Description:
356 residues, single chain, six-stranded antiparallel β-barrel
Amino acid sequence: MYTQxxxxxxxxxxRFTCIQKIFYSSIVICFLxxxxxxxxxxxxxxxxxxxxxxxxxxxxxxxxxxxxxxxxSSEFANTIGKVTLFHQDISSGxxxxxxxxxxxxxxxxxxxxxxxxxxxxxxxxxxxxxxxxTDLVVLKANHKFPVAIKHGDSTKIDxxxxxxxxxxxxxxxxxxxxxxxxxxxxxxxxxxxxxLKINAPVSPGNSGGAVVNTSGEVVGMILAVLxxxxxxxxxxxxxxxxxxxxxxxxxxxxxxxxxxxxxxIIKHGKVPRGFLGVDLMNKNEGVLxxxxxxxxxxxxxxxxxxxxxxxxxxxxxxxxxDLQRRVLNSSPNSKVILRVMRDGSGKNYTIKLGER
Length: 356
């Protein structure tokens, strides 16, 4: 009986101690919150604004303007003769190093002249190479940029991460927006890497611009924008601005992918990618081979139409995008193992990949 009472007193004392700790912790948190609100006579929004400006200022030098100029000549018979047509695309780019290497997105066509603009000054740039599967281009400016370039770890960016986007298109000042990362997605047009999905709006010309974390580090490059058009109503009149696409989702290449692809382009002028040589179709149990190209690595290894591919180097394959990504990210001449189902039985095929 005595022991039971002692235990009850002990538990009561523990509860009281826990309540005290929670009470004092709440007071401390409230005190810190109120102190923050009134620190140096500034409210929390003013403090946030100052930190926001610091992040933009520290990361801004890593973003440059890219001018791509196109010239074409046409002759008009019996009129004004030969006419040279001129037009210029403006986009953004990210400094990769102090030697003048710059990453940006692919051009609509081969430009006649490329220039880099930073702080109002123009510098000529040369085209080093591109990768069609990530839409990345590497340029080399005829200038060494003496700036501290901070590249962050893009693997730490995940759902809920706060980021800024910085572009350098029209005018001398950057175009800045703020958003939240929704996660990572793989687009069919860009199967080689997962892209950061961000709800931050971007302006024309911001492609190739930087995605920046709250530490002022560049963690991605703006690549594409997905837009969902408005549904036009038959009962309301919509002006041109209202007819424009309203829902915009921004996609960015993680900086780890940018640096990896850029390093290969700088070394080889391109990104060497593996080639298998099949057409595929999604099935519930894997991907179905619908066609095998003659003299391709798949053909030489014995793959046939109707084969069901389930694994790539012991990794499960669920969609043809999975297989495509793994093949493209493999080096040419490397050997891979495919687990294939044929006529109800499984077999491993060792295939030496070609070069795409």
